[in-house]
Design goal:
Layout: E1 3-9, E2 24-30, H1 47-50, H2 78-82, E3 88-93, E4 109-117, H3 124-130, E5 137-151, E6 166-171, H4 173-185, E7 187-192, E8 215-216, H5 217-220, H6 222-228, E9 239-245, E10 248-254
Antiparallel strand pairs: 1-2, 3-6, 4-5, 4-7, 5-6, 5-8, 9-10
């Protein structure tokens, strides 16, 4: 009886599982038993060359493999087919300024920075405590080393660079919640990592706690720092910080701060 090698599952396979060399094996069957859709061996073809991808349904031990059991690796299904197990795809809006001027491509790794206006409670004690830290604006890195899955509808790393409107990121469930909340709190920007750079962006500095926390307007502005430390020579115990926001100008009264 003439036989051919047909590809079958070498173990029970679960939906969403990525096929590897241990997932399938060749099984000799009578040539007359081969049916439409079955995957048969060509020359000395390996099992991993015959079929690749992620399953869209369960496959039992010994069950013949069908290409129809795999997620179609097209543009419409590429993101779902290439998500790491347990991860989620989240899209965020970007512009030329927030998306590194179009230099981000699928497969790159980025950090996510949130900039936002701080809304202080009306309690005077809290406002006084905030004087040496923040007047209005803050920024901080909220996620690090995040993989880019797609830029707009492009999923190919070799796609032509262009200014994107949306970038799709691969994150875990908790990070997906962080992105959803952060998008409502302020503006999100992406910072591109160099190839192979997996080091932390947020470095805890026990000697300088300010470096371990969010960046704020008072922490980067020398003028505001001088005003709040009473280093102007007006002789006044109350000073005014003038904040410009577009066409709006706001004067905020503050008292001098003296480090203990």
């Amino acid at each position: 009886v003439r036989t051919v090698d047909m590809l079958v599952a070498s173990k029970d396979l679960k939906i969403g599982e990525e096929l590897d060399a241990s997932s399938t094996t060749w099984k000799a069957v009578p040539e007359s038993a081969v049916f439409a859709g079955a995957i048969t061996r060509k020359d000395k073809e390996s099992n991993t060359d015959a079929v690749k991808g992620r399953l869209k349904r369960d496959v039992a031990l010994g069950e013949p493999m069908f290409k129809s059991a795999l997620i179609d690796d097209t543009k419409s299904n590429f993101v779902a087919a290439n998500l790491t197990a347990g991860m989620r795809a989240v899209a965020i809006p970007v512009s030329a300024q927030t998306g590194v001027s179009g230099f981000i491509s699928p497969g790159d790794y980025v950090d996510v920075v949130m900039t936002y206006d701080v809304r202080l409670p009306s309690d005077d004690n809290i406002k006084n405590a905030a004087i040496p830290i923040v007047a209005r604006s803050a920024a901080q890195t909220i996620l690090e080393n995040i993989k880019v899955l797609a830029v707009d509808q492009a999923t190919d790393q070799m796609a032509e660079a262009k200014l994107a409107k949306t970038v799709t990121l691969e994150v875990d469930g908790k990070s997906a919640e962080i992105l959803a909340l952060a998008e409502n709190m302020g503006k999100l920007s992406l910072t591109l990592r160099g190839v192979g750079d997996k080091g932390p962006t947020i470095v805890e500095d026990p000697k300088d706690k300010a470096k371990s926390k969010a960046t704020t307007d008072l922490r980067i502005s020398n003028i505001m720092s001088e005003l709040l430390h009473g280093e102007n020579n007006t002789g006044s115990t109350n000073q005014v910080v003038r904040i410009y926001s577009g066409t709006r100008v706001e004067n905020v009264s503050v008292r001098p701060y003296h480090a203990q």
